[in-house]
Each structure stands twice: as C-alpha cells, then as structure tokens.
Amino acid sequence: MRGEATVLHADLDAFFASVEQRDAPALRGRPVIVGGGVVLAASYEAKARGVRTAMGGRQARDLCPEAVVVPPRMEAYSAASKDVFAIFRDTSPLVEGLSIDEAFLEVGGLRRIAGTPEQVAVRLRARVLSEVGLPISVGVARTKFLAKVASAVSKPDGLLVVEPDREEAFLLPLPVERLWGVGAKTAAKLHGLGIRTVGELAELEAATAERLLGKAAGAHLHALARLRDPRPVEPTRRRSSIGSQRALGSRPRTPAELDLILTQLVDRLARRLREGDRVCRTVVLRLRFGDFEKATRSRTVLSASDRTAVLLGVARDLLVAALPEIEARGITLIGISLSQLGRAADITPELPINWGEEARLDTALDAVRERFGATSVSRATQLGRDTGWDAPLLPEHE
User: Fold this and answer.
1) What are the EC numbers (predicted)?
2) Which end of the chain is more exposed for a tag (fewer CB within 10 A), N or C?
3) Is 245 found in the same domain as 202?
4) Residue 101 annotated in ligand binding
C-alpha cells in the first residue's frame, strides 16, 4: 500500500525577475530580463515571448524588444532567499534545500498541529507572498520526484496535489523531459527511439532502459518512470562543497575573458570560505561546451587552504589544460566548485607557515568588502566590466 502525499516541493517563480518586480512596482506585469550579456532570469511575461535562462542577451531582446533589462542584484536575491527559507523552517523541521529558490519539506507528522499537507501548502504559499512579497509554486506528493514534477506543472503561482491513487494518471502522459535527470541529449536519444512520454519509458524492461541509456542513468530514469523514488527528505546538512558559475551565451570567448571570469568566481568563493572559517582541498572546474555537453576537471591539493592565490592557481591550471577542447568545441558555461571542505580550526598547519603578504591582502580585501559591499573593491582587470559579468553564487542553506 502506498503512503500518503506528505512531501512538499516549494519553488519560487522566476525568482530573480520576481524580486525585481517586487522591488520596482513599475516593472510588475511587464517583461523583465535579468542580466544583459546573458539572461540570468526572465519574468513570465518575457518567457511568454520565448526568452529563456542562459540565452544570449541579443537574442532575448530580438524576441522581446519591449523587455526591461536590469542588472543582477545578488545581495537582494540572497536576502529574499533567507527570508523564504526562514518560513520553510518555521513550517516544518524537515527542510531539504535544493538551491537558492527551492526546497523539499516533509509535513507528514504535522497533521495534528497544522492540518493536512494541502492545508500546510496553502498557508506556506500565503506566508511567502504576504511576508516576502514573492509568488511560489508548490507540489505535494508521496515522493520527492513527484512533488518536484507537480510544482513544475503547477507554475506559475500554483498548487498541485498528486494523491497516491492519481500518480499514474498524472505522470505517465507527461513528456519524458519532465523526468528528473532528462536533459536535451537524453531527450533526443529517447525521441529517436520513439519514446516521448513517461509512460512509454515505463513500458520498457529495466534491462532495456539500461542498455539504451547506460546502466546508471537507465536504471534511475526507469525507476522514476515506474514511480519508484525511496529518497526521504533529508534536512540540509552543512554543505560539503560550495560553487558558483557563469552562463556565457554562445559567442566565442578568449582565454583572457575566461581567466577573468574564473578569477571572479574564485575570489568570491575563497572569501566565502574565510567568512565561514572553512578550508578546502579539492578544486573542481565545471564546463559546458558549445554542444551543451558537460565536463568536469578537478585537482586535490595536499594541504587544505582558504587562500585566494592558492585556489586560483589550481583553477587556472585546470582551465589551461582544458583550453584546447574549449577552442575546438566552444563554451557556454564555466563554473568552480570547492569541495572536501573542513573547518579551519581542525586543520593542522604545515610548517613553515609563510603566507606573508598574500594572507594580509586577503584579510584587507575581506574587511573592505565587509564594510563597503562586495563590489567596493575589484581587481584591475575587472575595471570597466558591466555587472552582468558577476556570477550568481550558489548559497549554503545551513
């Protein structure tokens, strides 16, 4: 017997653009694009005209010439996210943050004090709108996967409950793209095999799906298509990694441009480490090529560090090694993740300790940015660059 629909997936609608419309009443009801060179977010009015995240700015303006283009304000988005997550945690003790604008909540144990899961979801949406001023869509289902699909189907500003006896009727007719983990390449492969709906994938034998899609991916997607997702909502623990990335659009990028973006990403992430008294051992370079294939390159250092110069040196080595492939295939996204994080206090420093001017420079820059804002001081190579070059930092929900 299947359990109850007690998992909520709450997802803010067009988050960055919604914050801009909230803070500037003149933008409400109008198409809004966040980011000039590359679209970081688009309001639903702009999406209706075909504008999509990661699209080049010129293409977006051609599709929607009346759109209002605004620079990103990451501090405003981070503050709004914290306010929303405070409501999530006030709603349920079991909150699993997925990103800056979405989370799972398990509300099955709240029936006596808070009502049914649907009633909890209704109140949650009302609180986010009244207290933070943002629309949010919520899906309610028995599993995390179905709840996430339900919230996506309910957008914008919707609520959809998928009761256990309606799961097959809800999921099986949907396109395979709705499955968690089906990107453009996998969708194209499935379409080429004549598989366009979740139900058609579910009809395959598990072994056939694994042979067609690869053992791990095939098993995962086939299980989801057959409504198997045993993962519980796990309250977010202290993250084992932090990351930041930048969508680049489709135009060619020079090595100097890529190095500048890489420097910005590492600058911000290293400062984040120091703010949290943390260090890392592994630097991961994330790339998405012109054909939208993704790749990662990583290197682990012997001694954990929070020094900008150390981490930037590793990241630059990884980028230089990847340049021939980037030049051959093009690049549409670059990102950096810092993993194998630990507490700075738990690391035994190696002797001799001789950070010298480098440590003093990091400390001085951190102090200036803390007092006057993140953009108050920049490297000389960044002067004259518009704010669209700033990459969204993926926040830690702790």
Assistant:
1) 2.7.7.7
2) N
3) no
4) yes
